[in-house]
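User: Hello, beginner here. Can you help me understand these amino acid letters and fold codes? It all follows right here:
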Amino acid sequence: MQILRSNAELKLWKAAHPDCAFVPTMGNLHAGHLSLIGQARLSGLPVIASIFVNPLQFGAGEDFARYPRTFDADCAKLRDAGCAAVFAPALEDLYPQPQGYFVEPPALASELCGKFRPGHFRGMLTVVLKLFNLVEPRVALFGKKDYQQLALIRGMREQLNLPIRIEAGETTRAEDGLALSSRNGYLSEAERQEAPRLYQNLKLIADALALGRRDFEELEVQALDALYRHGWKVDYVSIRRPDLSLPAESDAQFVVLGAAWLGKTRLIDNVEAGQ
């Protein structure tokens, strides 16, 4: 496995591997990331992952400085997973000067997580477009755990006519249902025991929708109350269509999304539902 530390090294690798599958990450890798590598390998293309903690998608007071950076361990995991290369650029490679041009996302970026993290999705889409332009993959893979991110990336690909196929990977969970996340490492032992409750309540809504319930607001309020009673600070619980527009009673397919704080750690999750 090659480790590419600059745009110039990436360019040389690309000359030998013009077609590739791409898995962008911010590092601190877990089994969810590695499942995306395995899915990418099914394309038959050489797989390249990126490791870059993107400052543009962290707001004031967020955890950019303390975000876990575990580069050597990450590279060992990627090598064992069959990754062909890792692109780990320095900050000045992606931002050689203060960023003045951005991807301006649609209104969806100001809803759900975007309501509580203003500017996050603009920063995320901007760096993803930069990485797409540098890596030039044929296919790129993103996990469903970040469902809103996935929806916005798909929309960017379509509206900007990017010649890249976007594939989604299923959320990887611990045995108790907690979605794997780099931020789970911030949880105390007691918080880790409590953390699956978010998934459990989202799944209760999904199960009710599958059985035909359409009292969306009541279902959301029940989940909010259950989380509040156990000490969570909830940003939102929301039932949406798969494209993240607001649902109608006649719909048959849904996604139930939630974001909530457990202590100082913000967790997100979602569950797809359908009849």
Observations:
- Strands lie at 2-4, 21-25, 47-51, 85-87, 139-143, 165-169, 233-240, 253-262, 265-274.
- Residues 32 and 172 are 5 Å apart (CA to CA).
